[in-house]
Amino acid sequence: MLTLAVPSKGRLMERTAQWLAARGLRLRRTGTARDYAVALDGIEGVEARLMSAGEIAGALAAGEVNLGVTGRDLIREGAVRAEEVAALGFGHADLVIAVPDFWSDCRTLHDLDAVAAQFREGHGRRLRIATKYHRLTRAALREAGVADYVLVDSQGATEGTVAGGGAEAIADITSTGETLRANHLRVLEDGMVLRSEACLWRSQVDGGDEGPFRDLAARAAG
């Protein structure tokens, strides 16, 4: 038996159900909208479970579910031991590093390094970058040689932290860039950290039965 976790609400749940249906699998509720009970018809040996996207990443990491649909950003940020079975073609979002639009001379990560050094010299503290993605952002900045910064955790809308005085720059997920532009932020030319989308993942802690997995994997590839 395999346990497949799918997003529990919103557009991600709808698109996942459509993706499954296109492969001859029907996700249907077996209880009320509040109890999250579902079944997956059209395949033997696979039971479905509704969870939030963040919970799915954690459940895959712990081996509590064998398969799950969640974003590449959550898997990579959590360093989850999971195999990407298939990219589903929806839920696209990019993790990017963005700076205030009026920083006209800051176009690249190399420029950001220079700005950070000048900021520390002028203000006596490190430039703050707000993000929920500490691991991925730190790795990207380290690879680019950016120093003299500090990551600050964003608990709310990351795009608003610069205008609110909580940070000087941000690293955040964006789909269209409209929210960034509305907050007078601009993505650095080489500020792409990760291209993310919804994917089907298999836990490397407990991948479950091979028979049902091969069936599901074949449908995903078809």
TrEMBL record:
GO terms for biological process: L-histidine biosynthetic process. One of its GO terms (molecular function) is ATP phosphoribosyltransferase activity. Its EC number is 2.4.2.17. SUPFAM superfamilies: Periplasmic binding protein-like II. Pathway: Amino-acid biosynthesis; L-histidine biosynthesis; L-histidine from 5-phospho-alpha-D-ribose 1-diphosphate: step 1/9. GO terms for cellular component: cytoplasm. Keywords: Amino-acid biosynthesis, Glycosyltransferase, Histidine biosynthesis, Transferase. This is ATP phosphoribosyltransferase. PANTHER family: ATP PHOSPHORIBOSYLTRANSFERASE (PTHR21403:SF8), ATP PHOSPHORIBOSYLTRANSFERASE ATP-PRTASE (PTHR21403). It is an enzyme of class 2 (transferase).
